[in-house]
């Protein structure tokens, strides 16, 4: 009888952890330099999986996207929202022909123009010269977006909120 009481406690803990990681939040390690300087290779971040079930995706959110082409997950920044024309000219961002200014630091971006349709998002890495993103992989749907990355846990000297 004592064994089952102790086993029950461990089972509850295990089930709770699995449910939290599956539906709410999960840790992830940044792999690669495509989000430099915002996130570096090896950074440990938390993916909030529930946020977009209760709120909308916003421009400049850092998100984890399911990349079906390479069967992996990538961390990028949302630049284009549904039904927009996104253009970079002379390293300046234009949405529907209007310049958009931001304080976020990006590496130089080659000129390009892309359009999103209903339920499509254009995502780019902050380190544009090395990032494999919507310019190569195409646009992503809301269903492709696993969650938002807003917190870095490691390295400890950089722990905190991600902009």
Please describe what this structure looks like.
The chain has one domain: Umud Fragment, subunit A, CATH 2.10.109.10. The mean pLDDT is 89. Helices cover 18% and strands 37% of the residues. A hairpin with a 4-residue loop joins β3 (62-67) and β4. It has helices at 2-23, 51-54, 134-137; strands spanning 25-29, 44-48, 62-67, 72-80, 85-89, 92-95, 98-100, 112-115, 120-124, 140-141, 145-154, 160-161. The longest helix has 22 residues, at 2-23. It is of the alpha+beta class and 163 residues long. It is built from three helices and twelve strands; from the N terminus they run αββαβββββββαβββ. The relative contact order is 0.21. The strands form two sheets. Strands 1, 2, 3, 4, 9, 10, 11 and 12 form an eight-stranded antiparallel β-sheet that branches.
Proportion of beta-strand residues: 35-45%
User: Could you please say which CATH topology applies here?
Assistant: Umud Fragment, subunit A
**Spans where pLDDT lies below 50 across 5 or more residues:** none
CA-atom Rg in angstroms: 18 Å
Structural class, by secondary structure, is alpha+beta
Write down the domain tally.
Answer: 1
N- to C-terminal distance: 52 Å
Mean of the pLDDT scores? 89
Largest sheet: 8 strands, antiparallel
Number of strands: 12
Shape: elongated
The CATH H-level superfamily is Umud Fragment, subunit A
Q: What is the CATH C level class, in words?
A: Mainly Beta
Helix and strand string, N-terminal first?
HEEHEEEEEEEHEEE
**Helix content class:** 10-25%
CATH architecture: Ribbon
Query: What's the number of helices?
Result: 3
């Amino acid at each position: 009888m004592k064994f089952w009481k102790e086993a029950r406690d461990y089972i509850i803990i295990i089930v709770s952890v699995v449910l939290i990681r599956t539906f709410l939040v999960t840790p992830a390690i940044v792999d690669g330099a495509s989000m430099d300087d915002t996130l570096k290779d090896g950074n440990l971040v938390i993916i909030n999986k529930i946020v977009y079930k209760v709120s909308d995706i916003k421009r400049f959110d850092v998100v984890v996207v399911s990349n079906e082409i390479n069967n992996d997950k990538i961390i990028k920044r949302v630049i284009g929202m549904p039904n927009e024309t996104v253009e970079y000219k002379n390293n300046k961002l234009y949405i529907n022909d209007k310049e958009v200014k931001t304080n976020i630091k990006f590496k130089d971006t080659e000129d390009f123009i892309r359009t999103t349709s209903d339920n499509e998002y254009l995502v780019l890495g902050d380190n544009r010269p090395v990032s494999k993103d919507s310019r190569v992989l195409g646009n992503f749907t809301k269903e492709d977006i696993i969650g938002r990355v807003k917190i870095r846990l490691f390295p400890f000297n950089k722990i905190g909120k991600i902009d």
